[in-house]
């Protein structure tokens, strides 16, 4: 490696752009035309800084720009500079020179013609629009490629470079006959055949021919087979805001292909790679939309409902016909537009006609003398974008913004960033479903409608002093009736975020039916989850339930609801959710571990929770203590009396595993982005369907117990084998099997605790009933009876019409409800760079060390010492 002259310390780069590569007789490439700027670099120059400086000089997009150069003794192969190491290599290669030539190349952008063509022909070159002439360029003929020969990708560098230069030179000479300024048109191959080289053919082919007379319309020849070009209608949305476009070349696995590149700045033109197996139905849909937009403006006498409808039709019409316009007059009663191109005669005027109450086109000159070229500005206004996205959301409500951006880019050639599409999605959803913000004003009407359509239901909401939304509580009559008459007195409490624009929280209270399945009783939407919002919810719940039964509440210990429950519900019991308890226990484990190891801890915790006897509980926690004293301390400090069966005084629930939050999440996952009214109504619909389906399912049950409990009772009966029953009194019995158990039929209790835990007689109690001739069904919990289950789901949630009804315009101030004020901080848009992590104060950064000179402050790549 040759070191730079330390006295000179810099290399002058002659940066060239705007020209073209031409092929010499020896196969080498030469750059011709364009402009040049000089930039100096040295060992300390960073690649990003150089690229930024060049982009500023040429006024081009830094993301679509690349820097290339030739090696000093090789003019056949272009080398790309893509990072700091590549830049240092360039400096090293030209270490003995004062200057070096570099070439600025912009990334090619495939024209939409290529994307819209789906033909199966493999050996053809197509002009996007009709060609008027081909300048006099010598034909470059290449020998035939034998069918058995190696693919073109293995061609020699001299051959590929020569072919590339010839292709670029030939393509750049094509001129559109509609373009009076002589702007080069796009030249492209079909999307499913990108190679200009007909691999496997036996005839030679010509890239450009010496033809001065007009060629056949829309046709370029390859070999001796003329192929018609694609219709301009197929590429009507090639680009929006299209600038001049010139041809360039690209080398791929199938050989070289000629593609178009943007020449100039303006509206971004999207680059999309089209799969050769694109869906024909999608293409047909786009073409149908194009045809619809092209006929959106028909001429004088056409009527519209108003100026907004006229402007929307005009905007789509201009896109479909590939031109831009200026509104000379833009008022509610009249609108006049003319083509943006200077001197063009296209013009349209429409105005309001009071007699017909329509907005009518009065004058229109349909002739374009400009050729219909789009200018720099894009017609993709907010309303237009919303209308496009709205059509897509109607077909697929959960379209992702990225997918929408890709489709708009593919169909219309407009490149939009994420935030633009996201705002368009919000506007489109507002048009389809109503404004999220305005939906809060519907809450007073909505609550009245619920009570009106579902008598006996309770729906309350509160606002803050500034009229911003705070709480909404809802419990349907069908749920309250089912809980009071058919469900055990157990309520599970949980919450889940709605993940919507204003980040509301859903609070839930659910019971369990005879099958141990979730039965929703009430829910609330609150602006924030805290002790105050939970307290308000429990107060509303007590008013709705209004029962004399002692209720057992079950919740996540971390929510801290024990105090609020005891304050609001007298004689209530509060237990901790076993599932959440296990999750919190796992998070607390830190080690060290002994004995059976960490893997045994969760099993012993569950054993302690489910053990019906105190001695079983003690054995399990002792095993935990033998493994980890810290885990044992955590268990003893977690209020075992609130989750261990042997200590808990309320209704037994440890065998019930409800996932309330997950169920409600599944219900609302499809409507998270909808306004609050539709979100609540979606929950109502799910509850309505659940109650109906379970009522229908239980309508043909013929057993006294529900089927699952009937099977369980039969299992207990089958376990009775040679049991010996001893009488102590009319109600007290002693049952002998492998052990001795005491049964009290008045108390519905057995010393094995099975009867108390399950609500069904255990095998020992069944043995007693067989001896004394009692009906064992009389000693089963009534909540497991088929009659109770059917009673749980006997009432229906009624439908609610006109949910999409907008809030009344003359609503009084007292009915005004604003969105919640407490919002989480939004995440920065994906386009923003992440903040660099700041180093802690006082932390010393390790200095760099060079492995070449052993010095500090630099590394081997930036070392200035000679090798």
- Please give the radius of gyration in angstroms: 39 Å
Strand content: 15-25%
Q: How far apart lie the N and C ends? A: 8 Å
Shape: flat
Major sheet characteristics? 7 strands, mixed
Helix content: 25-40%
In total, the number of strands is 33
What is the mean pLDDT?
Answer: 75
- Uncertain stretches: 1-8, 108-279, 374-379
Number of helices: 23
Walk across the major sheet and give the strand order. Answer: 23-24-27-26-25-28-29
Domain SWIM-type: 741-773
Pfam families: DBD_Tnp_Mut, MULE, PB1, SWIM
Biased composition (Basic and acidic residues): 807-818, 853-867
GO molecular function: zinc ion binding
SSE layout:
Blueprint (H helix, E strand, L loop, with lengths): L10 E7 L2 E4 L5 E4 L2 E7 L5 H12 L6 E7 L2 E8 L2 H10 L5 E8 L5 H5 L9 E2 L3 E4 L6 E2 L14 H15 L2 E3 L10 E2 L16 E2 L12 E4 L2 E4 L15 E9 L2 E9 L16 H15 L8 E2 L2 H14 L4 E6 L3 E6 L7 E7 L4 E8 L16 H14 L5 H12 L5 H16 L9 H11 L4 E6 L5 E7 L1 H10 L3 E8 L7 E8 L5 E9 L4 H15 L6 E4 L6 H7 L4 E4 L1 H11 L12 H10 L3 H14 L1 H8 L23 H9 L7 H23 L8 H12 L5 E4 L4 E5 L3 E5 L4 E2 L3 H5 L4 H10 L13 H7 L75
What distinguishing features does this structure have?
alpha+beta; seven-stranded mixed beta sheet; 867 residues; 23 helices; five-stranded mixed beta sheet; 20% strand; single chain; flat; 33 strands; Ubiquitin-like (UB roll); 31% helix
């Amino acid at each position: 490696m040759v070191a730079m002259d330390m006295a000179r310390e810099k290399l002058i780069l002659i940066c060239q752009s705007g020209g073209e590569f031409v092929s010499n007789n020896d196969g080498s490439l030469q750059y011709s035309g364009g402009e040049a700027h000089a930039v100096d670099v040295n060992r300390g120059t960073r690649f990003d800084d150089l690229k930024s400086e060049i982009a500023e000089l040429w006024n081009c997009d830094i993301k679509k720009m690349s820097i290339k150069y030739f090696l000093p003794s090789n003019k056949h192969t272009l080398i790309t500079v893509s990072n700091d190491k590549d830049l240092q290599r360039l400096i090293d290669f030209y270490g003995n020179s004062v200057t070096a030539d570099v070439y600025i190349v912009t990334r090619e952008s495939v024209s939409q013609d290529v994307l819209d063509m789906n033909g199966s022909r493999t050996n053809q070159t197509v002009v996007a629009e009709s060609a008027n002439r081909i300048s006099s360029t010598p034909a470059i003929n290449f020998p035939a490629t034998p069918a058995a020969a190696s693919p073109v990708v293995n061609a020699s560098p001299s051959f590929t470079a020569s072919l590339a230069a010839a292709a670029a030179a030939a393509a750049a000479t094509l001129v559109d006959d509609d373009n009076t300024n002589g702007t080069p048109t796009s030249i492209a191959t079909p999307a499913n055949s990108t190679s200009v080289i007909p691999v496997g053919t036996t005839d030679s082919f010509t890239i450009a021919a010496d033809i001065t007379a007009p060629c056949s319309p829309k046709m370029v020849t390859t070999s001796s087979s003329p192929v018609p070009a694609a219709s301009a209608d197929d590429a009507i949305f090639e680009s929006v805001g299209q600038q001049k476009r010139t041809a360039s070349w690209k080398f791929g696995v199938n050989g070289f292909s000629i593609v178009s590149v943007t020449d100039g700045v303006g509206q971004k033109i999207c680059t999309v790679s089209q799969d050769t197996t694109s869906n024909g139905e999608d293409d047909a849909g786009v073409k149908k939309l194009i045809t619809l937009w092209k006929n959106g403006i028909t001429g004088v006498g056409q009527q519209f409902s108003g100026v907004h409808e006229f402007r929307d039709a005009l905007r789509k019409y201009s896109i479909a016909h590939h031109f831009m316009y200026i509104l000379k007059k833009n008022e509610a009663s009249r609108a006049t537009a003319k083509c943006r191109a200077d001197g063009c005669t296209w013009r349209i005027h429409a105005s309001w006609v009071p007699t017909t109450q329509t907005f009518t086109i009065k004058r229109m000159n349909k002739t374009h003398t400009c050729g219909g070229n789009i200018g720099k500005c894009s017609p993709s206004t907010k309303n237009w974008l919303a209308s496009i996205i709205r059509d897509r959301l109607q077909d697929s409500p959960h379209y992702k913004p990225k997918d929408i951006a890709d489709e708009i880019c593919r169909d219309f050639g407009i490149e939009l960033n994420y935030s633009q599409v996201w705002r368009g999605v919000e506007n489109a959803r507002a048009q389809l479903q109503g404004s999220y913000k305005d939906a809060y004003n519907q809450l007073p009407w909505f609550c009245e409608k619920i009570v009106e359509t579902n008598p006996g239901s309770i729906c309350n909401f509160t606002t803050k002093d500034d009229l911003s939304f705070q709480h909404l509580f809802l419990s349907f009559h069908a749920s309250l009736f089912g809980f009071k008459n058919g469900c055990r007195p157990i309520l599970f409490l949980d919450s889940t975020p709605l993940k919507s624009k204003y980040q509301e929280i859903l609070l839930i209270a659910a019971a369990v039916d005879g099958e141990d399945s979730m039965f929703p009783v009430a829910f609330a939407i609150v602006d924030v989850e805290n002790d105050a919002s939970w307290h308000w919810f429990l107060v509303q719940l007590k008013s709705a339930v209004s029962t004399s039964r002692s209720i057992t509440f079950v919740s996540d210990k971390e929510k801290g609801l024990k105090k609020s429950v005891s304050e609001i519900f007298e004689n209530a019991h509060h237990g901790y959710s076993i599932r959440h308890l296990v999750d919190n226990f796992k998070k607390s484990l830190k080690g060290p571990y002994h004995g059976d190891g960490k893997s045994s801890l969760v099993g012993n915790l569950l054993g302690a929770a489910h053990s019906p006897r105190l001695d079983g509980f003690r054995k399990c926690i002792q095993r935990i203590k033998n493994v980890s004293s810290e885990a044992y301390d955590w268990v003893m400090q977690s209020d075992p009396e609130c989750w261990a069966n042997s200590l808990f005084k309320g209704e037994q629930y440890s065998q019930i595993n409800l996932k309330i939050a997950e169920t409600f999440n599944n219900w609302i996952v499809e409507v998270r982005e909808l306004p609050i009214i539709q979100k609540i109504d979606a929950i109502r619909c799910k509850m309505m369907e659940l109650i109906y389906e379970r009522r229908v399912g239980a309508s043909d049950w013929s057993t006294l117990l529900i089927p699952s409990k009937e099977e369980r009772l039969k299992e207990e009966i089958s376990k009775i084998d040679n049991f010996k029953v001893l009488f102590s009194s009319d109600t007290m019995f002693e049952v002998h099997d492998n052990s001795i158990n005491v049964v009290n039929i008045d108390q519905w209790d057995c010393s094995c605790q099975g009867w108390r835990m399950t609500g069904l007689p255990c095998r020992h109690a069944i043995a007693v009933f067989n001896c004394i001739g009692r009906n064992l069904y009389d000693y089963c919990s009534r909540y497991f009876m088929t009659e109770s289950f059917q009673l749980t789901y006997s009432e229906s949630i009624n439908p609610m019409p006109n949910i999409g009804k907008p809030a009344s315009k003359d609503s009084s101030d007292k009915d005004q409800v604003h969105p919640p004020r407490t919002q989480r901080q939004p995440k920065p848009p994906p386009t923003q760079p992440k903040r660099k992590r700041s180093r802690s104060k006082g932390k010393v950064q390790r200095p760099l060390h060079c492995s070449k000179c052993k010095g500090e402050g630099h590394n081997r790549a930036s070392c200035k010492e000679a090798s």
